[in-house]
Design goal:
There is one protein chain. By secondary structure, the protein is of the alpha+beta class. It has two domains: 87 residues, Phosphorylase Kinase, domain 1; 196 residues, Orthogonal Bundle (Transferase(Phosphotransferase), domain 1). It is 43% helix and 16% strand. The protein is built from twelve helices and eleven strands. Strand 3 and strand 4 form a beta hairpin. About 6% of the residues have low confidence.
Length: 341
C-alpha cells in the first residue's frame, strides 16, 4: 500500500476515515481522520515507505508510539493505537486544532513574559509526567510543542524519547541525537543524558519564544553545538532590556553546562517560574531588584574578561620589548687626574 496513492479522502484505514493530509516531515506524512470507534477527530502519522525499508527507521518510528503510549497527561498528545496494516506503519494520536509554538512565534512575534511563562509551566508539567515514567523526550523545541485553539500547549514527537535503560545503552554506543539549536551540552558530546537535558532545552525554548532568536547561532549545526558546549548562555536582558531579571536567572540556571548545576526537576523549574508570576514580577519594574546569583555571575564574567584583556596587553607589551633592538652602550666616563699637554 502506498499512502500517497491510496489514502484519499473517505478511505478507511485502521478504523479511521481519512479526511485529508495535513502535514509532512522527515519521517513521513500526517493525515487528519475520524476515528469511528471513538467518535472523534484524530491524526494518523505514517512512516514513509522509503524509510520503512530500513529496520532502524521502523524501530525509531515505533519507539515514539511506545514511549508516548505510556503517558497520559493533558499537555502531551495522546496515542490511541499504533502498529502495521497492509505493510504500512502508523501511529494514531489525538488531533490538535492549533499550530506549533514555532509557527505561532513566526506569525505573531515573541510572546509577552506572562504568556510565555504560562506556556512553559504547562510544558514542564507534561515533562514532569514523562520523567516520572522514566521517559526523556530529548528533543524539546518550539516545533514540538503544539498550541491548541484555547492556548494550551501539548508536547508531540517522542521519536527521540528514551527510557532510562535505553539511554544507558545508547550512551555506550556514543550516539548523538537532538536538534542543535536546543541541544544540551551532554547530548552534543554524546555523553550520559537524563531528564535534565529536557530542562536545558526548556530554558532554550523560553529564550526563543521571548526573543524570536535562538540562544546560539552558527553557520552549521556543529558550530551551534560547540557553542552549547563551551559558551555561556546569553543574557536575555542584554537583548531585551524590558525583560525582568528573574527570567534571565531562570534561563541561566536551566542552561548551565553541568546538569548538576541546573534545576533538578521539571517541578522545581515550574515552581520557580510560578512563584515569580504569583509575585507579579512580569514587567520591567523588577529590573531594579538585585538578584545576587545573577549579579555575581555577571561580575565574575566581567572580571574574567578584564583579566583576559590585561593578560593579552601584557603579552603584547612583552612581544614588543622582545622585538625592539637593544639600546647602544653608554659612553665611557671622562678621564681623571692630570692630562698630558
Amino acid at each position: 500500500m502506498n499512502t500517497e496513492d491510496e489514502l484519499k479522502e473517505g478511505t478507511v484505514f485502521a478504523g479511521c476515515r481519512i479526511a485529508g493530509k495535513i502535514g509532512q516531515g522527515g519521517m513521513g506524512t500526517v493525515y487528519k481522520a475520524y476515528y469511528e470507534a471513538l467518535g472523534k477527530d484524530i491524526c494518523i502519522k505514517f512512516l514513509s515507505p522509503a524509510l520503512a525499508q530500513d529496520a532502524r527507521n521502523i524501530e525509531f518510528f515505533m519507539r515514539e508510539a511506545r514511549s508516548a503510549a505510556r503517558l497520559d497527561h493533558p499537555n502531551i498528545v495522546h496515542i490511541y493505537n499504533f502498529g502495521q496494516e497492509n505493510g504500512v506503519y502508523f501511529i494514531i494520536m489525538s488531533y490538535v486544532d492549533g499550530q506549533s509554538l514555532e509557527d505561532l512565534i513566526g506569525e505573531k512575534g515573541p510572546l509577552e513574559v506572562d504568556k510565555a511563562s504560562e506556556i512553559l509551566i504547562e510544558v514542564l508539567e507534561g515533562l514532569g509526567h514523562a520523567h516520572s515514567k522514566t521517559i526523556i523526550h530529548r528533543d524539546i523545541k518550539p516545533s514540538n510543542i503544539l498550541i491548541t485553539s484555547d492556548g494550551r500547549p501539548r508536547i508531540v514527537d517522542f521519536g527521540l524519547a528514551r527510557s532510562i535503560n535505553e539511554e544507558k545503552q545508547l550512551t555506550m554506543a556514543g550516539e548523538m541525537v537532538g536538534t542543535a539549536y536546543f541541544m544540551s551540552p551532554e547530548q552534543g558530546l554524546a555523553g550520559t543524558v537524563d531528564h535534565r537535558a529536557d530542562l536545558y532545552a526548556a530554558g532554550a525554548t523560553l529564550f526563543y519564544i521571548l526573543t524570536g532568536r535562538h540562544p546560539f547561532e552558527g553557520k552549521s549545526s556543529i558550530e551551534v553545538i560547540h557553542k552549547h558546549i563551551g559558551d555561556p548562555a546569553p543574557n536575555i536582558v542584554l537583548i531585551k532590556p524590558d525583560i525582568p531579571l528573574w527570567v534571565s536567572t531562570v534561563i541561566d540556571r536551566s542552561m548551565r553546562k553541568k546538569p548538576a548545576d541546573r534545576y533538578q526537576s521539571a517541578e522545581e523549574m515550574a515552581g520557580v517560574i510560578r512563584k515569580y508570576l504569583k509575585e507579579g514580577m512580569s514587567s520591567s519594574n523588577e529590573m531594579s531588584l538585585d538578584i545576587p546569583e545573577l549579579t555575581q555571575r555577571i561580575s565574575d564574567n566581567a572580571a574574567r574578561k578584564e583579566a583576559s584583556m590585561d593578560a593579552q596587553a601584557s603579552l603584547a607589551k612583552s612581544d614588543r620589548s622582545a622585538a625592539a633592538p637593544a639600546p647602544p652602550p653608554p659612553p665611557p666616563p671622562p678621564p681623571t687626574g692630570p692630562q698630558p699637554r
